[in-house]
Amino acid sequence: MMGSSKGQITNVQAAVILVNYILAAGILTLPRTSVEKVKTPDVWITVILGGIIAMIVGLIIVKLNQRYPEKTFYQYSQEIVGKWMGGFLSLLIIGYFFTLSAYEVRTMAEVTGLFLLEGTPTWAIILPFMWIGLYLIIGGINTIARLFEIIFPITIVIFLLVAFLSLGIFELDNLRPVLGLGIVPMLKGIKTTALAFLGSEIMLLLVAFMKKPDKAVKVVLIGVFIPLLFYVITVVMVIGALSIDGVVTSTWPTLELMRSFEIPGLIFERFESFLLVIWIMQIFTTFTITYYAAALGLAQLFKKKIHPFVYGLVPIIYVIAMAPKNINDLFKLGDMVGNVALLLFAVLPVILLLVSRVRGGKA
Amino acid sequence: MKHITIRTLLSALLVLILLPLTGCWSNKEIEDLGLIVGTSLDLEKQGEPREESSGQAGGPPHRDRITITNQFVTAETTGKGTKTGTSQQKAYNNVSETGDTILPTLRNMVLRIEKRAFAEHSKVIIIGEDLARTMDLQKILDFFIREQEMRPSGLLLIAQNRASKILESKKPMDIPALKLVEMTHGHGRTTKILPPTTLTKIEGKLHSGASFLLQNVVSPSNGDIKFAGAAVIEGKTRKLRGFLNEKEIEGLTWITGKGKGGLVKSVDKKTGQPIIYEILSMKSKIKPHVDGNNISFDIKIESEGRIAEHWVVSEKTMETEFLKRTEKEIEKEVERLVKNVLDKIQHEYKTDVSGFGNKLRIKYPHIWKTVKKDWDQTFSEVPIKHEVKITIKDYGTSDE
């Protein structure tokens, strides 16, 4: 486990990792954050546009990666912009990864603390979660991929089930008119929805592990398209049931939707627990993959074994996760991570790709 | 040797891990929970004796005081209800408390009940007429919407007179809160009950400032609760504006076209005998028109149904001429219902509770932006035309 990058995962596994990574904390808040910006029921179009942007970003990252076969970003960045600059960029990205992973854990703790484990202290929710993540990561990328393959179908089946159960309180009028106030309000939300698709950046590392890296373009397109479907369904169902005025007043609108209906005759009344189950699994996947990406980055940067870094990151992630004092701080941290991601992964890869082309031409 | 020490350490650790597994962290045993199934809120009229629980001296300035009644179910959780014999125990237990805000008042209930109040399964909130008239609904409901224990699928009803009366029943084994929920299911068979309104739907309406209707429930002196008409909540003040009676609800259901069934009673012009029309389907189209600054609406109502009962002995339902005549009569009756309620909501209450604004918002979003602030006022002045078309499809198994 030298942090080497041999072809270890199949294309399907790569796509599954990408899907699981993208689907995370955002799905519970996306309807609210996007409606706050857009203010019309056209949010679903904005979500589609955000997804398309994420696909383009993913494609650029893949193109960059394919120039350096079998190498991760941490290894090839130094080839493009020199040792110090490359090292600095790698550190930035490592910092981004473990901050994001801390953010995901804390969001998970907040929501489960509120809806499932009332009275359980935050640390008691976070620590076991992190330990299990640690256990998974020690197994390496292959183990991670195999677990994600198990989680993925469960997520899809349960998600579609609960989403369509809410059809009973769906009102089409809440989604009309389409583009009633023109396209300007719709464009205002693009940044928000594009951020919900954060995740293509994992391709910076993932391509190096793929058995057939030439198929990475397809992986990115499929890997973003599935979350796109999830998000559109979520936004449509939530707005259809709560109306845009109801969505903005709700902290966790997607959970609100699941709590808003009961189906007489079914044994279960609390459908939000189903959603929370798959959502916690999704948070877990995002947490582990970013955690792994950070540990792998440190290992490759310092050319050491990965294990010490895996263990060493636990306290760091824990401290960051516990840092936000309240829920608003947490949302702020999320915004900050998002803005950093926009700079790091929408702007940086383009520059690097250009530099690499210029340099590559000379070599 | 090293191997063995690690093994012993690990086994010791495993044993330690087993210890916390014996219990859940913040478990609540179901026997210790007081399951709340319904809540009623009333305004406490001045002059009535104060509850001793408000003994804090120098508290906040005087506000309207609210009496909250929680309905707990007893039989299911304690098993006492299964006792047979002379002393039949009630299936529910109502606990009331008075205070000026919701949560502190609810907390005061702790002083009176031995169980932990648990509202996850609460089905209904009933607000008394007086309270709804004097206080902003958003303030009253804020706690219920904010609290994550209370589910937003709960129903909201308005009670004429006192709401806590609704939670009482003369039959000891009935649980009034659950009965109310069952009663709302009837809206598929009559046009006199509104579709159930849950907290989810109200949240958006309160926030958008739209006027809306809530199902009204009364408790006549003979003790049986009954749905009667609807309460009109004005969007701007979020207070109760007035009531619509059952006939007016019928008219409103015809306007929205959301009814799934029901009856229309009309009178045969020739003989003066009643003819009952049963609605099989109902459709309505509200069309907004904007001409410069003038807004107007057209309502087109279509319905298919059957003659379910008629006392016109002289006529045969087989005959087309009689059917045509009856169709006209029923159309007239529906038009009368519609006109009646439109007159009331437009001119008396001046509130748009039937979704005209919504249609305008969808068709003319730009116009809506300018009129939405004062929509109820604008609505009270717009001309509304209506047209009803009734088709009688069949007349059951008798052609007489």
Q: Layout of helices and strands, plus pairs?
A:
The complex is a heterodimer of chains A (363) and B (400).
Chain A: H1 11-22, H2 26-38, H3 43-66, H4 73-81, H5 83-115, H6 122-138, H7 141-165, H8 184-188, H9 190-196, H10 203-209, H11 216-247, H12 253-259, H13 272-301, H14 307-322, H15 327-362
Helix pairs in contact in A: 1-7, 1-11, 1-13, 2-9, 2-11, 3-9, 3-10, 3-11, 3-15, 4-5, 5-6, 5-13, 5-14, 5-15, 6-13, 6-14, 7-13, 11-12, 13-14
Chain B: H1 2-18, E1 33-44, E2 65-73, H2 75-78, E3 92-99, H3 102-108, E4 116-118, E5 124-128, H4 129-134, H5 137-146, E6 155-159, H6 163-166, H7 176-184, H8 199-208, E7 212-218, E8 226-234, E9 239-244, H9 246-256, E10 262-267, E11 274-291, E12 294-310, H10 320-348, H11 356-363, H12 365-371, H13 375-379, E13 384-394
Parallel strand pairs in B: 1-4, 1-5, 5-6, 6-7, 12-13
Antiparallel strand pairs in B: 1-2, 2-3, 7-8, 8-9, 10-11, 11-12
